[in-house]
Amino acid sequence: MSIRKTGKIRVRRAPEDARENILAAAERLLVVEGPLALKLAEVAAAAGVANASVLHHFGSIDGLHAALMERMVRQLIAEVLALADKGGPTRDDTQEAVFQALFDVFENRNAARLAAWLELTGEWRRMTHVREAVREVVARRASFGDVTPKQAEDLVLISVTLAMGAGLFGRALAELIGKPSGHAREVATEMLRVFHAAQCEKR
Amino acid sequence: MSIRKTGKIRVRRAPEDARENILAAAERLLVVEGPLALKLAEVAAAAGVANASVLHHFGSIDGLHAALMERMVRQLIAEVLALADKGGPTRDDTQEAVFQALFDVFENRNAARLAAWLELTGEWRRMTHVREAVREVVARRASFGDVTPKQAEDLVLISVTLAMGAGLFGRALAELIGKPSGHAREVATEMLRVFHAAQCEKR
DNA sequence: AGCTTTATTGACAAAAATGTCAATAAGAAA
DNA sequence: TTTCTTATTGACATTTTTGTCAATAAAGCT
Lengths: 203, 203
What we know:
2 copies of one chain form a homodimer.
Chain A: H1 15-33, H2 40-47, H3 51-58, H4 61-85, H5 91-108, H6 111-121, H7 128-142, H8 149-176, H9 183-202
Helix pairs in contact in A: 1-2, 2-3, 3-4, 4-5, 4-7, 5-8, 5-9, 6-8, 7-8, 8-9
The first copy, chain A, binds a DNA duplex through residues 8-15, 18, 39-41, 49-53, 55-57, 60-61.
């Protein structure tokens, strides 16, 4: 056993490492157990530290929530942009890559649950970098030139909306009608393809 | 003022009325303040009764939650089915009416927030009547005959997914790119129309 | 009227969650 | 080594939220 009764051993981390350790544990909790599991005691236990340590680094439970939101939003944005950059040679390939990136992030990484939580609590409006990131995505999309700028805006808007909806409700709804869990995503991407094609024609 | 100090006047309701009063207040709270506001004290205050009364009728705060979920899901299903029945003369009109019904319910009535809450807490799987209702919707849709049964299933799946996504995230995302709040819904319905048309062609 | 049932409630108890603080110890610097 | 900073922690205090209970009173019944 590695339990000591008398000799007191503590893991002492650099402040950033300590914060990272706690935030990673909190993120795991959020994704697996849902937002209700984000209690002080649960987060501390998951991170392997004392309650007081969490408060030391984040000030309060709300501070932890805010830090977690910020971290996850940053990861999310970075991931979408990175995946979008790895588009194929043609425009259609690139568009397809962006769609897949969106669904990967929102469905597989469970970012949709975070987004829903942010929307329900209404706390996300403070994060200005979200606004900037969205602007960047729209600008990139519009630069392709296969659709008008207005169409590009609509495409981004509807892609993200659909990816979030599918990421949050897709599995449950698919199960509900007896389809495999990935079915909602398939139909969603198909619909986006059709819509994009129609946009290109109508331009 | 209508405050009495000595004479004790109580409102005594029939059990169903009392439950209804409390549930209505709770629903108002959920929609306006979000799921975090569903505390015993807040619900009781909103309903104008004592905390103990809420517990008397629902046993516990979890009992209240469950009853609220059930009630809202029932209302939601009834509303969608009723609106879907009021379809226009042609098939396209009927389809359009169903789309509008979905978006009305999920966006305007804020049912999307409830759905998100149910998904995050994972409590909705117990409600079997949801499964039955979805089956009924699919059956109705398939009976139109303008698409194959498989396509009908996909259409229901994707319509609901999109309506929920738009209802929950639409306003925020539209604002984020500087569009009017109803824009997400417009684009969403347009995309559904395009997809439906493509389905009919491909049949 | 009196009697019965039970919805209602205030006061209180219990539990859960958050936050405080002084003491400790790990690591860096002197 | 000694000193200093501060991350860490257990014990405790505070706040919030939930749940209990006996007394009250509103409505139906005889």
